[in-house]
UniProtKB/TrEMBL annotation:
Protein name: Uncharacterized protein
Provenance organism: Pyrinomonas methylaliphatogenes
């Protein structure tokens, strides 16, 4: 059921702010943090894998940091300098969506903001506001660019959705969904379809939610993970010699001593593609890092 009182709101003036969060909002504005502001009311009935204590979230984005107020009856305040942000994720699965932020310098922390998918454009714009502060300067030195025309239509659309105007795609690697097909009744997903991409401004991943039991609602889902290029520490293809598990692309992000790890399952028919992708991406990132020094 669609619940209007769970729709996210763009906050433009104090009267739009829920009473428990008004003091936080006014204090942040007094500190000159009066940029993009959005409020996500508590989601009381999220999917099982996303359950957490219901809370309202007020997200405020300034020039060099963001602040989040979390209302669980008692208001908790979190401040994240952009220099501490490691990754940002936006996911959607039918009417449920979320923003997840990873941050830290000594240890990594995460905050997850659930919201109704009706408000996803508000959080998409919030992420683009964050990207303005974290994207590296566009690198136009490369002559070759990746061609997304062979991607499935869904992933071509997602690619366009998360690129800024003029952003150039340098590298792409795509893994289709991997499923067991021994018996149709017992077929299960071994790995979701996943796209990895490097542009002149960002490294990112687009994938789907893993299915729960035999439901296939995952095909109506999408998860985008944004990684600022300076945070990308490692990207390597690791294969299990005993073939007990599918090979993995291991993605390492770092900020000072805080580290985050992601993995992407890869089928045997895509090994060469992803091996080349990893080499090209790390070569490009290391070259760009040297040029920025």
């Amino acid at each position: 059921m669609v619940k209007v009182d769970q729709f996210a709101l763009r906050i433009r003036e104090p009267k739009d702010v829920p009473a428990p969060l008004l003091a936080f909002y006014e204090k942040a504005r007094a500190d000159d943090l009066d940029g993009y502001v959005v409020y996500a009311p508590p989601i009381t009935d999220p999917p099982a894998r996303h359950r957490q204590v219901p809370a309202g979230h007020l997200l405020m984005i300034g020039d060099d940091r963001l602040r989040i107020a979390i209302d669980r009856g008692v208001v908790e305040e979190v401040e994240i300098p952009f220099a501490d942000l490691i990754f940002a994720e936006i996911g959607e699965a039918l009417l449920f969506s979320w923003m997840r932020l990873g941050f830290g310098r000594h240890t990594s922390r995460e905050i997850k903001i659930p919201f109704n998918t009706v408000g996803i454009e508000l959080f998409r714009q919030a992420l683009f506001s964050i990207r303005k502060a974290l994207d590296v300067s566009p690198d136009r030195a490369r002559d070759s660019h990746a061609d997304p025309s062979r991607l499935p239509f869904k992933f071509q659309s997602e690619l366009r959705r998360w690129l800024l105007e003029g952003e150039q795609i340098f590298e792409l690697a795509f893994q289709p969904e991997i499923r067991t097909h021994r018996f149709i009744v017992f077929a299960r997903q071994l790995a979701p379809p996943t796209l990895l991409a490097l542009t002149d401004r960002q490294f990112f991943c687009v994938t789907e939610e893993p299915p729960v039991a035999r439901e296939r609602l995952s095909k109506y889902s999408s998860v985008y993970v944004y990684c600022p290029l300076p945070r990308l520490e490692s990207l390597a293809l690791e294969a299990d010699g005993a073939r007990r598990e599918l090979p993995e692309v291991r993605i390492g992000l770092v900020n000072d001593r805080a580290r985050v790890r992601f993995t992407v399952k890869v089928g045997s028919d895509c090994l060469a593609q992803f091996a080349l992708f990893c080499r090209n991406v790390m070569g490009s990132v290391e070259k760009s890092a040297c040029e920025r020094r």
